[in-house]
Amino acid sequence: MTGVVVSAIAIIVGIAVFIILAYKGLSPTIACLISAVIIGITCEGGLGTAIFDTFMNQAITFMSSILLLIVIGGLLSAVLEVTHTTDALANGIIRLLGDNSVPIIIFIMTGLLNFLGVGSYQFIVAPIALGLLKKANIPRRVGLIAMMVAYNAVTYCLPGTSVTPNILPTTILGTNIYAGAGVGIFAFVCATALGLGYVYWMLKDCKKHQLGFELAAGMPDGMPGGKNDSKEQKAPPFWTAIVTIVLLFALCFVFSMVKALGFDATQAVILAQVITAIWALVINFKYVDRTIWLRQISSGTTAVIPLAIMLGFISGFGAVVQNTAAFQALLKGILSLNVSPYLLTFIGVALLAACMGNGTGALAMVLNALSPTLAASNVSMDAVHRIATVTASTLDSMPHCTNVCVSLQVFGTTHKQSYKYVFYSTVIIPLIYAGLTTLLCIIIY
After folding, report:
1. Based on C-alpha coordinates, what's the Rg of the chain?
2. Which DSSP string corresponds to 305-329?
3. How many CB atoms lie within 10 A of CB 88?
4. Which end of the chain lies in a sparser environment, N or C, as judged by fewer CB atoms within 10 Å?
5. How many CA atoms, within 13 angstroms, populate the side-chain half-sphere of residue 171?
6. Is the full-model pTM beyond 0.85?
7. Could you report the per-residue pLDDT of 344-390, keeping only the tens digit for each?
């Protein structure tokens, strides 16, 4: 049962089963394992090889690379909650800038963290965003979408960023991180304008229907906004919250950019988060409930470990999909299309991203496969670089995407409650600006 048609049907059924189970409320961790079993039956070597070798090897490899990053991100989130730093920040920002500033604040904060290459940005953004949303009485999904729009705009569109989607093409195509800067800036402006426009439409619609901040759903106990959030207490001064956030950004920047320190991106972010957590705990310790603070920090930190497992399993699911005859046939079929190399890059990255739930992986596969053809043709590698990175933000945001699943979890919402908003903002809108970027490259280059 390893034929192209059979495995193609299995992929479609597997993804459909994942979507249905996730919408019904089953954990994405279990849902993607069930889906991987469905698809694995059609893989070369059979189900045993697909699950115990392909799936688990990829899951363990991915988990080992992100576990410490996620746990330390959870630690910082817990400390910010326990010290009421998030309350102080929310109170001050709402007082100074008003309720309508909340989406912009979340967008800017997310954008800066992603520009600095902070892979665990959700665990920093979520507790602060939830504090702002609660204070302003705005539904969780508005903050969720503001964060995801910023992630796409900065990570996939903005030239000059030291993030994986922008660095990978340089190693394959021989370009640099500023390749196609003009069209990249165009894509970033489009992504920001269309994305924030949608967010503020959501905000207006929520106010029209008198919808406010809701109780958490699908969030592990102990995480910000979960069932056992502490009761309202006196918040520390606003200045301590501002200094804490500035310190975090400054440390991320210094540790990441000063190469003489010898830290890679992951080490830089982890160290910055640890120092910031210690600072927040020391400066605001008198606002901590000393009878339960250690238990709260422990609960908040360990609550994120299931998310690392979930991400590993979803990565394993993608590996199983790649190991099917249908996926390989799709890749060959895309490469054989008789169209412009720019359009071919757009189509290839988008379609493979949909199958894998991983835009960066799709980008790498397509560019590696296309590079010999591109090198022999008269095309601009800069344009191909930028089309590939921008397009990687399109169909990767399917329900089985790792970024989608973890973002929903940390904001305390579910596929059923919020995925339709995710789809509009991170699939439909990116298809628009990626399509325009591709068209612009065809015209200019």
Report:
1. 22
2. HHHHHHHHHHHHHHHHHHTSHHHHH
3. 24
4. N
5. 11
6. no
7. 889 988 888 887 777 887 888 888 888 777 777 778 888 999 999 99
